[in-house]
Design a protein that fits this description.
The chain has about 450 residues and is α/β, with parallel strands linked by helices. Helix content is about 30%, strand content about 25%.
């Protein structure tokens, strides 16, 4: 039988990797540092129901994720609903879906509204055949939409994702995102929530003979050309033939042994983290699934209302709203006390929604994640690291590798599929044929 594989990280990429490997007959040990599987899909209990700490949805174009859900018997249980987009500008909520909504969007002048609509309809086509990986987002969008639309709308809108550096991100990322999402779109949500997905993948791994260990942080990762040694915090060691690391590259560098560290990718991407505040409200906020918040005196710059997608029953007949701000893990906001953030953001939410009072806010929760989105530099396609670590039996499957795809559960599952394809080809070679050059072509 091929040697054991250690998968480091119990987010969806690690779970998908381990799930597929055990289905192919490989012995697998999955290690998760925290006490809960799921990564950004972790959850908490509120009124007897499990709720995601960070918002998620399934898009009809998520082919890799849908295939995985089908394998664990959850695809048919996805509830699909049409969702809409709003926009909060200068403290005023507006609908932002139809041509009529755009014509009524007075923060832009009439000429700019028409230009915005025409360019937005043609944007996917306008990007075809261009080397958008080497064009700054600001240069591309400002050139198409004009200075005023860029400054008043697009810079704060897209800057919510990458902060002040967004203008320098390759335009290819924006172009790819347009292929996955639109203002008015059908979205899906698993019948049992995302906990049901995590539980089903965990059950599949264990049913196939795989081992899952939570609360098992890795202290040291060492490799030879033929093996991997993982040392846990308590000093326990695990030997394996191969390993797949799904943890962010900065975190991997912290646990890499002296012999492994020099072989890790040189790419040093900055990462955006996120501050996420969950509001359980006694009345709906606006009915829009997604609403950017621009120039409205709030720390948060986006709102996600889950109730239009999930209904209110799963939250105890309450309405769940996520308010978020992407920010570096070293920022003052990220380091601020959760209770202080909760109080201030509650006041800010009330200030931008007429008719919403403090009595309508039933529960507030604050969650943070340090590594959510890499800030990609221009020309990243040429810089994007291989999933292989030369001279070792270690493979990488991280957000640094999914570009130009949008960071999502779907792109994570697709990356997991690519990495497991490579590992399976190597694992099935005879011992005399195995080498650490990963004889299959490099996965990019």
């Amino acid at each position: 039988m091929p040697g054991r594989v250690v998968v480091i990280g119990g987010g969806v990429c690690g779970l998908a990797t381990a799930h597929r490997l055990v289905r192919e007959g490989l012995p697998v040990t999955l290690l998760e540092a925290s006490d809960q599987l799921g990564g950004l899909g972790t959850f908490f209990s509120s009124r007897g129901e499990w709720v995601e700490r960070f918002y998620h949805c399934v898009m009809p174009t998520d082919a890799a994720l849908l295939a995985l859900l089908d394998e664990v018997g959850l695809k048919d249980g996805i509830g699909w609903r049409p969702t809409t987009m709003g926009m909060v500008v200068d403290g005023v909520h507006r609908s932002f879906n139809s041509a009529l909504d755009l014509l009524r969007f007075t923060p832009l002048g009439l000429a700019d509204r028409i230009r915005f609509g025409v360019v937005s309809l043609l944007l996917r086509r306008l990007g075809e055949g261009r080397d958008l990986d080497r064009i700054r987002t600001e240069d591309w969008l400002r050139g198409l939409y004009g200075d005023r639309i860029w400054s008043l709308l697009l810079a704060p809108l897209f800057g919510a994702k990458f902060g002040s550096s967004f203008g320098d991100v390759p335009a290819l990322y924006v172009w790819q995102r347009l292929g996955r999402e639109s203002n008015e779109s059908v979205r899906g949500y698993p019948a049992g929530g995302y906990k049901s997905v995590i539980d089903a993948l965990g059950a599949s791994i264990e049913a196939g003979g795989g081992e899952i260990r939570t609360a098992a942080p890795v202290r040291l990762l060492e490799t030879t050309p033929d093996s991997v040694t993982v040392t846990l915090d308590g000093g326990e060691t695990i030997e394996a033939r191969h390993a797949v690391s799904t943890v962010p590259l900065p975190a991997l560098r912290e646990i890499a042994g002296a012999g492994l560290a020099p072989g890790l990718p040189d790419v040093r991407l900055p990462y955006q983290g996120v501050v996420n505040v969950l509001f359980f409200l006694r009345k709906p906020l606006s009915g829009h699934y997604w609403a950017p918040v621009l120039r409205s005196g709030t720390d948060f710059d986006g709102l996600i209302e889950m109730t239009p997608l999930t209904g209110s029953r799963r939250y105890g007949d309450r309405h769940l709203v996520y308010a978020m701000r992407y920010t570096g893990r070293e920022s003052e906001l990220y380091r601020e006390d959760d209770a202080v953030i909760a109080r201030r953001w509650t006041e800010q939410l009330l200030s931008i929604r007429r008719g919403l009072t403090a009595g309508d806010v039933d529960e507030v929760r604050v969650f943070k994640a340090p590594f959510v989105e890499p800030v990609y530099p221009l020309g990243y396609l040429a810089q994007r690291p291989s999933v292989e670590v030369p001279g070792t039996p270690l493979l990488l499957a991280t957000t640094a590798h999914v570009y130009p795809d949008v960071t999502s559960w779907n792109s994570s599952v697709r990356l997991a599929n690519s990495v497991t394809d490579l590992l399976l080809r190597e694992a099935r070679r005879s011992p005399t044929q195995e080498n650490t050059a990963w004889s299959a072509e490099s996965v990019r």
